[in-house]
């Protein structure tokens, strides 16, 4: 089949690589540098398996920023463009998705459009009505940052928001590209598929928030968080996983998806969903207060990223903590090798790790690292288990 994937971030590029093993795939992006990278067989994201596949696999893949060339002959267009949460409108900004749909419908009335971007509940139905077509389908993705291709090859489930033959075809396209056998497949209506995505990520955020609040309680009472978490996790209904405390949840998905779900509750009574959103701010307050009470001369931030081996620090929890520390006029320096600038949000970037360690009186690290072993007495982290 001729397939176009719009967007070359984690979702889009991993899908393009996945499907280019069996189909003719065009990756479309408005960013010329990303198009160039893909055509040079270089990954636009930090994902080792994507990089390996681009350099070594036999892929029928090209990239372009020409929308006419990308969409005109496509049988399927997969839309994987970013949809950030807009705090002013209390909703996802879906302009990028709608722009792609407009470009596609202008030159190709026959292709099937599959939205992989995360969207508000009800948007697919609205788009179908507006464009007078049933050829717009939502199919959520469930990918981990840095493991996107792996998770597409080994999906936990495939969900398509369409119960017709078109939905079946999309589910088979994805399942046949996977390496895992017997992947659970669920065909739903579009609103249910949209809700599955938001409720899944909000549950993950809830679990992070739960163990973070457990950790806050233990710290406040001079208790051993690790012992409590291990004891709680031995209950098989809870499980000893996804329980490592942090500075808060962040990254590409959880902050925006939890807020979008809460916005979808605007006429529905709720307590828990709002608490999950509020809890993340409470955790940042607690961590910041703990650091401020140490009365450090200089606070060093070791990495802005949320997890190991990542290049993403969008809405990372540590940035919120930095704002709170800055408000107390405590100097902050940052070690972030992914950035080559001199400053980040007004704070000095120190590119030399040795100089960074020497100048910092307290080093904040959301995740512990072997690079910090020699200054362990300076390090403040809530990473108890050495995992993301």
Q: By CATH's scheme, which homologous superfamily of the largest domain applies?
A: NAD(P)-binding Rossmann-like Domain
**Major beta sheet, specifics?**
6 strands, parallel
Counting H and I runs of at least 4 residues, what is the number of helices? 14
Going by helix content, strand content and strand pairing, the class is alpha/beta
Q: Reading side by side through the largest sheet, how are the strands ordered?
A: 3-2-1-4-7-8
- Under CATH, the topology of the largest domain can be stated as Rossmann fold
Order of helices and strands: EHEHHEHEEEHEHEHEHEHHHHEHEEEHEE
Give the end-to-end Cα distance, rounded to a whole number of Å: 38 Å
Q: How is this structure best summarized?
A:
The chain is α/β, with parallel strands linked by helices. It has 14 helices and 16 strands.
Overview of the molecule:
The protein has 2 domains: 2-188, Rossmann fold; 198-380, Rossmann fold (3-Layer(aba) Sandwich), CATH 3.40.50. It has helices at residues 10-19, 32-39, 48-56, 67-71, 95-107, 123-131, 148-153, 165-177, 190-220, 225-233, 254-264, 272-293, 317-326, 353-359; strands at 2-6, 24-28, 61-64, 76-79, 85-86, 91-92, 112-115, 136-138, 158-160, 185-187, 299-302, 332-335, 343-344, 347-349, 362-364, 379-380. By secondary structure, it is of the alpha/beta class. The chain has a 6-stranded parallel β-sheet with strand order 3-2-1-4-7-8, sandwiched between helices. It has a 6-stranded mixed β-sheet with strand order 13-14-12-11-15-16, sandwiched between helices. It starts with a strand and ends in an 8-residue tail after the last strand.
